[in-house]
C-alpha cells in the first residue's frame, strides 16, 4: 500500500498536493456532496454559488486506444470528434468508468485533471480562457479547486482547444 504524504494525511488530495508542490495559487472549496444529485458538476456549481460556465468537469475518453482527459464546462458536453482532432486522433469514445478510475486514481465524480496516478494527455476547452479562474475537481466528490486556466493548462501540459459543446 502506498504511503500517504503528511499533506494527504491532513486531508489533502493528490491534486492539492501537486498544486502546493508547484507553488500555484489556488483556493479549495468544500461542500456536502448529495449522492442523489443527478450531476456532480452542476451540484458543485450550485453549492459554491459559481456560474456553471466557470465549473469544469474532468472526463476521460479513449482516443485511438489512448486514454485522454477532457476538461469542459459542466453546463455543456464533450464534443468527441473535436477532442480526437485536438490530439491528432481519428476516433474518440468515452472511456470505461472503471478503467478511468483505475488509471487516474480517483473515483467517478471526483476525477481531477491534477495529481493523477498516471499522467494522461489533457485537453482544456478553450472557453476556460474567458475566465480569470475556473473550478475543477480537487480529487474527491464535494471538493473543488479554483485556479487560473493558465496554471491548469501549464500543470497538466494541456492542449487548449474548443472541445466543449453548449
- Order of strands across the biggest sheet? 5-2-3-6-9
Radius of gyration: 15 Å
Q: Helical segment tally?
A: 6
Please report which band the strand proportion falls in: under 5%, 5-15%, 15-25%, 25-35%, 35-45% or over 45%: 25-35%
Report the order of strands and helices.
HHEHEEEHEHEEEHEE
Q: Which sheet architecture does the biggest sheet show?
A: 5 strands, mixed
End-to-end distance: 42 Å
Tell me, briefly, the overall form. Answer: globular
Percent in helix: 25-40%
Low-confidence segments: 1-10
> Structural class of the secondary elements?
alpha+beta
DSSP strand count? 10
Keywords:
166 residues; alpha+beta; five-stranded mixed sheet; three-stranded antiparallel sheet; disordered N terminus
Describe the model:
The protein is of the alpha+beta class. Helices cover 27% and strands 28% of the residues. It has 6 helices and 10 strands, in the order H-H-E-H-E-E-E-H-E-H-E-E-E-H-E-E. The strands form 3 sheets. The chain has a 5-stranded mixed β-sheet with strand order 5-2-3-6-9. Strands 1-8-7 form a 3-stranded antiparallel β-sheet. It has a two-stranded antiparallel sheet with strand order 4-10.
